Amino acid sequence: MKNGFSVFLAAFIALGLSWCGFVLGPAKQLGAEKQAAVLNSSDVYPIQRTGDAALGLQVYRANGCAACHTEQVRQDGVVCDVVLMKPGKNPAVVSNLVSTLKLTGLTKDEADAASDQITAAGGSVETHIIPVGTDIARGWGLRQSVAADFLYDTPVQLGSLRAGPDLANVGARLPDFNWQLVHLYAPSAVAKNSAMPPFRYLFELRKIGDTPSPDAVQFPEGFAPPAGCEVVPTPEAKQLAAYLLSLKADAPLYEAPFTPVTTKP
Amino acid sequence: MSENPTSENLGGASVLASRIDASCRVPLLALFGGAAVWLVVGLVLSLAAIMTFHNPDMFADCPFLTYGRAQAAANDALLYGFCIPAGLGVMLWIFARLSQTELALPLVPVVAANIWHLGVLVGTVAILIGDSTGFAWLEFPRGGSVLLFTAFLLIAISAVATFGQRRERELYPSHWFLLAALFWFPWIYSTANLLLITHHPVRGVAQMAIDFWFANNLIFVWLSLVGLGTAFYFLPKLAGRPLQSHYLALFAFWTLILFGTWMGITVSAPLPAWMPAASSAAAVLTLVPLLAVAVIAVKTVRGSAAACNGGPLCHVKFGTAAFILSGLMLIASACPQFSRVTEFTWFAPAQVQWQMLGFFAIVMGGAIYELLPRVMGFGLPFPKFVRLQHWLFMVGIVLWAGSLAVGGVEQGMRLGNPLTPFADSTDAALMFLRAGTTGLLFILLGSLLFAANIFAMTFKWKLALAKTVIALIKSPLEAGEVKS
To answer: What SS3 class is residue A257?
Structure first.
């Protein structure tokens, strides 16, 4: 490196390469992404947030919720279960097959082989796809998070630390609006020993006037405000809770397939 | 002659050296003064943030210091408020010294330093009042980032002009690292701001890819370029031995910028699979520059007769070692096997703290203690603070970042087992967070000592300046000027 220009050139090449890879590439590839089709359905995913939920994302951003919460479910892979739907014309053989064959926790190929055997015997089967992984076992999501989940978010609040639980699917996990408000006002009221700071500044503690506010938060026993007072959420609190309820990554997609469980076995 | 910093300050060169130093005085004071303030402010905000884990109820009624805001403000105050201006100040001085000329356009960096610190103030206040952009490490809204960008360009103009008028044409290794850093920041900062902080940002997770790329290129690559450029200047100078060797440094430079810039995409990010894979591969390759830097540092310092004694040499040596450790932590967290445990835990914040405070701040501290007495023309007002600050920082960062890292692994092992309740993982980390707070207090104390030296020097200089002015006013007029 004899002169300033060669240093400039070196830096230009090195940074230019990674810029093409990690900025230009994704901006072209992901920036043009459109709504995806939900598997086995005519629906599209995701639906853009509206109203309070859309405003709530900005409350989430302003208060730095992503400092402690991720919105990103990880998955180790999928397993397949073969489920017998109808025994068909030859129930004895089929039930014999079902009891001898391994039908749960299979790979795709094993599942195909098993379902071929049963179908050949006259039974009709369905193959269920079940994502596995720690986050899914914790009940944080039905499948891994994929690019489509964040299509309409600005800013995308992926988060990088789990000082609190993942929120990718919190709207499906904890769908009670009042629960969310109680949790924001006094986390320890609903989650014992919670490390989350209470967000009391998003609420107003006030004397009950002539008529109690219809919005007032309903507390569990032992956590109610002093007699004659009520806790009323500010618009920000309501928006934040609406946003949390709108966090539902529950659509099976081509890149993240799973079989929605309708009834528990 | 400037090719080898050890040969400076001999004979007639010392007159020139003191002229060069004097030309840097006002710009450096402006940059370092603000940096010292932001270091203290950033650490106080860090402390306020971590208090939430001692008592979650603490700021429940105070929106400005809620964890999510205080933490982001603390990070940005440390990175943009302290690290970057301190690095730029040291860079200007090194450029002037290596060029053997006075600083070019000295007024420009003075103005720029004030614009920069104003930008940090605007940005930090914006975060605290809830105006953060929501992108990690890019939280300053447009008002702040425009000021920062302008200020950086102005300082770069002065630095490049000084570089251009150099008398010693041959480049020294520090030149490569620092010049690359001058080029790096405007590119990554403008890219990130233009694509993310506009009315029509890129859509969806592409935002995250760009944010990851930006944060890695700023915190890992930029800080490493400036920190290593500084270390490669001061290590030989303080140890009294030439840098071993220029070829190895060139190798470290190329591999660092080629591989380091591809890191930063987290392993399980919901991005096309090739991106985390490319990042992991780059992380493994980044072992090469780390190794090269380790060899350079050891070979340069080994056999040196210079005593360390808690002085600037100690700072730079510890800082270089900290760079290796921080790099290894970053590489480890990019390996899928290791990141299964550490992803989404306190391990990543620990690495960033180690990089910013353990490596960069300590190298800059050593450099500033070494160059400031020369620049000011008088010794440090509290010379004993240098050693004390070094110890406070060393013990503090080991306790602080060490606790976070160990806490992160403990947290991750519980997080990775679905049968362990989630609360157990937070509780496991909580203990370490609380222990680490002691370390943070040590660092804060050290930063106060650092600020004390800088402000006492500024005050002493201003007092001397005022005295000269008063003496000038009071001095009897020349006979010819007296009117009858």
So the answer is: coil
